[in-house]
Design goal:
Blueprint (H helix, E strand, L loop, with lengths): L1 H16 L17 H6 L4 H13 L7 H5 L6 H7 L6
Length: 88
């Protein structure tokens, strides 16, 4: 029925937009991460590519946490999750 289809679509939409919570155990330098490592932190492949392209546009290096935070592929919630583990 239509109601079932609408319900399924909303479930898919919710899952697509949810952020995967990843347990981070060690501090890391975001300048050293590969695309695969960004994905392991809970980012999608598209987000990982956007982060790496943003880093490249900055001359290949994030200078500090605030520079990384400006990358629109990282939500405020996800940034708060990773910020305590960042070092530069």
């Amino acid at each position: 029925t239509n109601n079932e289809q609408i319900e399924k679509k909303s479930e898919i939409k919710e899952n697509k937009n949810s952020t995967i919570k990843t347990e981070i155990k060690n501090k890391f330098n975001p300048n050293d991460l590969t695309k695969e490592e960004w994905i392991e932190l809970g980012f999608s492949e598209k987000q990982a590519n956007t982060i790496l392209n943003f880093k490249k546009s900055l001359g290949g290096e994030f200078k500090n946490a605030q520079t990384l935070k400006r990358c629109y592929a990282i939500s405020d919630d996800k940034f708060k999750e990773i910020e305590p583990y960042l070092y530069f």
